[in-house]
# Entry
Amino acid sequence: MRQFALRSSGIIILLILWELVSRTNLIDPGLFPPPSQVISALVSLTLSGQLPKDVFASVLRAVAGFILGSMAGLFVGAVSGRIRAFDAVLTPVVQVLRPIPVIALVPLAIVWFGLGETSKIFLVFWGVFFPVWVSSYLGISRVDKNYIWAARSIGVRREKLWLQVILPAALPTIITGLRTSISLAFIVLVAAEMAGSYLGVGYRISAYHLVFQIDKMMGYIVLMGALGFIADRTFAYLVNRTLPWYQLSVNQD
Amino acid sequence: MAGHVVVENLGVSFTGKDKTIWAVKDVSLEVKSREFVSLVGVSGCGKSTVINSIAGFVPPTVGDVTVDNQPITEPNSRRGVVFQSFVLFPWKTVRENIAFGPHSRGVDEKVITQSVDQYLKLMGLMNFADHYPQQLSGGMRQRVALARVLINDPDVLLMDEPFGALDAQTRIFMQEVVLNLWESTHKSVLFVTHDIDEAVFLSDRVYVMTAAPGSIKSVYDIELERPRGAEIRLDPKFLDYKRELYEEIREESQKVLGPLPLF
Amino acid sequence: MIIRNFKLLLGILTLVLFVTGCGKVSEEESRVTLGQGMGVLNAPIFVTNEKNFWESQSLQVDVRPFVAGRLALDSLIAGDIDIATIGDTPVVYGLFKHPNLRIIATVMESNRDEKVIARRDAGIDSPGDLKGKRIGVFFGTAGEYYAIRFIEAQGLSREDVSFINIKAPDMVAALSNGSIDAYVSWEPHVQNGLRALGENAVVFLNSDIYTETWNLVTTAEFFNNNPEAVRRVLRAVVRGVEYTNANRKEAIDITEKQLGLSRDVLENIWDDYDFKVVLSENLVATLRNQGEWIQASSDLSKGKSLPDYRQVIIDQPLREILPVAVSIP
# Structure
């Protein structure tokens, strides 16, 4: 409880400072609306039903893109991390595509998939795929061979190694990649929604920017931050809940 | 009488960047059924490679490795391996680590639970059954690793510097644990170490390896009476063995490190 | 004694610096950063750049292109650029938050620049068919204002269609792959859409609802600190506009190069644009109309009265340079 109070005090001080700076008219409150105004904008947008729809649309896109992207990244990373032939063929392809900043693909996604859900999910997929690929590739190709030997010498059959030894041994590295991708998913999503849409948090940020509705724009920016934070916490909670050993291993190494 | 290990003219090479490196060359040794045999040598002489070949992890480049006249093709739970770094599975609890072997061989769950409990009790780990390995001390971890292997009732126990990562007190305690276990179960044991005291204390026979690429330099039969207790370490015969082995190893160290510098 | 001499010396030095400094200002080059929104309506500025009419006014102009005047406005507000060419709608929006924006001249008027382009296979053959359709609009630009007026002229309201916010250059692709049914924009984007869709495209134009003005916009601070630079920019642009009108073929060539539209297309639409340097009553009226529209349709001006749009226009420099161009009192 004391921890919590201490942790939130920083945020509260930030809010008070922000409110004070806006109120003193040092900066035009029209350009830098105080938190009270931003919060009231958020409240009225929530009551009007617009904000929940935006959040729902954005979260759905982020989750869909994240699941597809991380599954593909995990699969390709695992296969190329463990099987020579796949490594030789796939890894150069991935390495060539990986440095392309995903934001640069936004216009291409519009040309290929239009402005609908497909292009947004595709962009999130792309953004998530590479960090998950990297972490799965590294995690799986660098699994300590002693784990495999230890398992084999107590009678674990070769075909069972994948699920019972290699994957769990690589999991801590993979989880790091997944966690990085969560914040990346939101960054990419905002960029994708800003490029063209009629629903979603990123779309509102861009639309309110263009018509100078700064309090609402800031409200949606704060909301984006909150969504990212909640997603990260939820992920951490689920990991600790389902993999109690994970935290122990991380602290150890 | 199972667990008779014979290694004949074993050579193992690895292909490096532009040349072939021999890890061991021309190693011949034997572990008879229920015998406790140690392999000592300086660091990097290829002791572990010998263990890895017998375990089935690394195929011999030349020579033969057989257990009970069967050539070794792949790892098998008849040959249990205990590693220096324990190699417990961090995603499994102590109980799950020990049960992993019988579990993957499809042993009946009830039987598994019973025998896991038995080994937990034997190793003094009953209160730590649901802990993860990361929560245990080094000595406890190595006991889990031993239990994980012994539960499969192997014929041969291959121990690769199992106490190398432990502090001196824990090490002596673990040596006694292993000796007691061996005396009650009578597995064939091949024990790799660079600690001469440990080798003499535990073994029926000690093989000394040359520096890399390792081959067998000499063999000593340790004729000390069994069962052995802590006091045997002060026995003059014990000290004689130690002295002789020490000289052998010293020669090999000098090959690797060069003569002592003169100050 | 020494002190008195020292003071004298200081006084002389200051005087010398002042005189030479002052003398230098009128001779010295002025540096101006100009942001230009890309479109056919910016043609006279393209010409001024290409012929470098800035140079003869002792101006060194750093020109930065923007996809839309609306985005140039952000840079102007942030202080990255000194002067920008922008349509009227973004300025009206911006004035609610930035009362220091100033218009120094209109360089073009047109009631045929903004258009609606739609896909026939989306079931759109007449403007009334837009009901219920997805229409791409670049929010905050004149395109948005035109789109609303167009819809209203069909007896429809904003809620009868779904507007999708898209940057103008992305509209062609979005329409081509069917993620929108229509879009509203300025040229070259409608011509580009026509080229991409061919027979499948239908274009609607309502020239009675809105006359767009394309303006040179700066901030009160920049004008107050650099009145001479502003005058020079105006003189150069006046020459650019005259040249554009006198050398139609060359002006089209220059614009073609800037926008990538073909000569034929530009020839066809060129007369839709009235290039002229003016400050007219029409500008004040269109600013006020849009101000009232924004006041009614959004809560941007909540609790505030509309700005005095006459005060937004700085007419004095243009009045000095080209008196006939100023028709506001």
The CA atoms of residues 108 and 204 of chain C lie 22 Å apart. The longest strand of chain C covers residues 101-110. Residues 19-26 of chain C have pLDDT under 50 and may be disordered. Chains C and B do not touch (no CB pair under 8 Å).
